[in-house]
Amino acid sequence: MDEEFFLNIVYKDRTIKFRVQNPDAPLSTLMQNLKHAVGKDGRVIFDFPSVDKTGAPMDYFFGKEDTMINELRVLRPRIGHEDQNLRDYNVQNGDTVFVVPDPFPG
Fold first, then answer.
1. Are 7 and 95 a contacting pair, CB within 8 Å?
2. pLDDT in tens, 25-56
3. Are 7 and 97 in contact (CB under 8 A)?
């Protein structure tokens, strides 16, 4: 696959065009890469807090808008024992995905 793969990633009030090295990588790997991605200024692109306001640990998922029902669908990184990737959710080059914070009980 020689074609570059880009996603428009939205988190809070910021959208960036993000180059995905391997669109077939598990979603958990892509999220981990995004958490550590730095911009041209050398700073982390997005600030993902590890806990919410109540102190509950935070996890983050990708989400994609379902235009049929006008709702955001969370792209779960695993279903059963299977890691999921962008293609499992029909995410295409140039699509917009959202970063969805998810607090979980500590």
1. yes
2. 999 999 999 999 988 899 889 889 888 888 88
3. yes
